[in-house]
Specification:
The protein is α+β, with helices and mostly antiparallel strands. The chain has two domains: about 140 residues, Penicillin-binding protein 2a (Domain 2); about 300 residues, Beta-lactamase, CATH 3.40.710.10. Helices cover about 35% and strands about 25% of the residues. It has 20 helices and 25 strands. The strands form eight sheets. Strands 2, 3, 6, 7, 10, 20 and 21 form a seven-stranded mixed β-sheet that branches. A hairpin with a 5-residue loop joins strand 2 and strand 3.
């Protein structure tokens, strides 16, 4: 072997030795130093974390009737990169889902740059349509199966997948819409109970780590980390859907007859503050959110304010009696219908009325005299004491506190206007809560809309018992005010249309002219009636409020517009609740015989 050959062999050997040494070093580096890195890359390729979606809890009424729940649906997904006949598939899906074929085809053939593979590719995840019901999804699958039956494997129509999902549904449509609210596309509560109790309803998603083969098939035997989904709780309301249906039907009649700007009805259990029914017009269907204006979604019962009108006279009378400055029989001079110094009118000319008849005949001058005798500070204290000028605390989003001006902002005649419900603004919820305090022996309760939250097994996770706010007036004074309110609904009162056959009703009408450009206008008013029955043992308090009734064959006043609605709802509610008739409405209940609980009105 000559020297040249030996040199070549030596160089080759050294080269191979260096190469093998480098390769060994690289292998050692990969196997030892980069072991975890490449192991993680392998996991990413074959292992994935599958999200286990939790189910949103249901909303129930007080009798466990389902008001909001979930419907199992499927999302139709297409892997466009795996579609060989996009036009055929677009036509099939467009027909089944009532979509535009051309738009679908454009989505399937659209390409974008894939930086990983450095080329233009079609999307691997095209959402064709979400929330497709099981029947439609099964129909699509059947059509695909039929088409593929006579095709060879390489020519199969592929790329269509169905992802399990759930759609929130409200089976009663528009009924109770403002209380229930709605959810967004992410199933997050956006209003009503869906929003205020979202943390109870939503639940917590779980996960399961899975491993797939190179072809994407899940390895069933693989046991990775797993955490089960925790479904949301069920929220049980105080609402009684039998009563709610009555309220909704009567509200529809109000809208059909008067075409008002809006209308609200609230029914409350005065003993507990539990809301038995609540509805507004206009309303909406939470199942069909597209195109619904925000003003229609607004819960008028808590998110708007009105001047309460003469229903506010209840506060003035209760305050005067509780301070013992008058009794029911104390005479009040009513200036023959016009009090000149403050330019205040009555609808009828009365020289003098007893305190009881001030309320029965709804005398503006009479209540102004009572409030003046109370004084600004005392009168203001009772306004706040009855819950006005502050949020009631009902567990619904969007509640406003109304508007009660501080005494420092009162004019010299404010003390004569506020007692009749002017220069104050209250929500419908505040008005019904205030009269419920009279029906409840002077105890003001926090309005309650939810009884409890339970888990899937029915175990109570959290309950919401009645909450006493304060004793506003004494039980004796509450009985005296009730006595006067009973006569308001008698033939000589302003609300005889509120009478309910077989029951004694206590209540008060309200008619408030509306303000426009700082002045009260005669052709726009808020008509209301608020009361409770049976008067001797109230099963419910009820507010009917009609804003700007337009088509009236009579004067637009609370006694003619709202009181008859109160009567119809109450009569039907009494039947639904199984209330036994008590006595003739012609015989007012004598709840107390107290001649002198206060000083004579004319003495200081």
């Amino acid at each position: 072997m000559n020297r040249a050959i030996r040199k070549r062999i030596l160089v080759t050997g050294i080269t191979l030795a260096v190469c093998f040494t480098g390769l060994s070093a690289r292998l050692l580096y990969v196997q030892v130093s980069q072991h975890e890195h490449y192991l993680e890359l392998g996991r990413r390729k074959h292992e994935t974390r599958k999200i286990l979606t939790s189910s949103r809890g249901s909303i129930l009424d007080s009798t466990d009737q389902v008001l909001a729940s979930n419907e199992p649906v499927k999302d139709v997904i297409v892997d466009a990169s795996n579609v060989k006949e996009p036009e055929l598939l677009a036509g099939l899906l467009a027909d089944a889902l009532n979509l535009d074929k051309a738009e679908l085809h454009a989505k399937f053939v659209k390409e974008s740059y894939d930086p990983k593979h450095k080329k233009m590719t079609r999307s691997r995840y095209v959402v064709v349509q979400k929330n497709v019901n099981e029947t439609v999804a099964s129909g699509i699958l059947a059509k695909l199966t039929a088409l593929n039956r006579d095709r060879r494997d390489w020519n199969q129509i592929r790329g269509v997948a169905f992802e399990q999902s759930a759609r929130r549904i409200w089976p009663n449509g528009e009924l109770l819409c403002h209380v229930l609210g709605y959810v967004n596309s992410a199933n997050f509560g956006m209003d009503g109970i869906e929003r205020s109790f979202n943390r109870y309803l939503q639940g917590t998603n779980g996960f399961r780590d899975i491993e797939r083969t190179r072809t994407g098939v899940e390895i069933v035997s693989y046991r990775g980390e797993e955490r089960a989904a925790s479904n949301g709780g069920n929220v049980r309301l105080t609402i009684n859907m039998r009563l709610q249906t009555i309220v909704e039907e009567e509200l529809n009649s109000v809208v059909a007859r008067y075409r008002p700007k809006s209308a609200t009805v609230i029914m409350m259990d005065p003993k507990t503050g539990g809301i038995l029914a609540m509805a507004n017009r206009p309303n909406f269907n939470p199942n069909k959110q597209k195109g619904v204006e925000e003003s229609v979604r607004l819960n008028l019962a808590i998110a708007t304010q009105v001047e309460p009108g003469s229903t506010f006279k209840i506060v003035t009378m209760a305050a005067a009696l509780n301070e013992r400055i008058v009794s029911l029989t104390t005479p009040v001079p009513c200036e023959n219908g016009y009090w000149s110094w403050c330019k205040l009118h009555d609808h009828h000319a009365y020289a003098s009325l007893t305190v009881k008849n001030v309320l029965v005949h709804s005398s503006n001058i009479g209540v102004a005299k009572l409030a003046s005798k109370l004084g600004e500070q005392k009168f203001s204290d009772y306004i706040y004491g009855f819950g006005f000028g502050q949020r009631t605390g009902v567990a619904l989003p969007g509640e406003i506190k109304g508007e009660i001006h501080p005494i420092s902002d009162w004019t010299p005649i404010s003390i004569t206007r506020m007692p009749m419900g002017h220069e104050v603004a209250a929500t419908p919820m505040q008005i019904v809560t205030a009269i419920s305090a009279i029906a409840n022996g002077g105890k003001l309760m926090t309005p309650q809309i939810v009884q409890d939250v339970t888990d899937e097994s029915g175990n109570v996770k959290e309950s919401f018992p009645p909450l006493l706010v304060r004793q506003v007036v004494s039980a004796q004074v509450a009985r005296l005010v009730t006595e006067a309110l009973i006569e308001v609904t008698s033939p000589k009162g302003t609300a005889k249309a509120a009478q309910v056959p077989g029951f004694v009703v206590a209540g008060k009408t309200g008619t408030a002219q509306k303000l426009e450009n700082g002045r009260y206008v005669n052709d726009k008013s808020v008509c209301s009636f608020v009361g409770f029955m049976p008067a001797e043992a109230p099963a419910f308090a009820l507010l009917v409020l009609v804003d700007e009734p337009r088509e009236t064959r009579h004067k637009a006043v609370g006694g003619l517009v709202a009181a008859p609605v109160f009567s119809r709802i109450s009569e039907r509610a009494a039947h639904s609740l199984g209330l036994a008739p008590t006595e003739s409405i012609k015989s007012p209940m004598i709840v107390a015989k107290v001649e002198k609980v206060g000083r004579d009105f004319r003495r200081p």
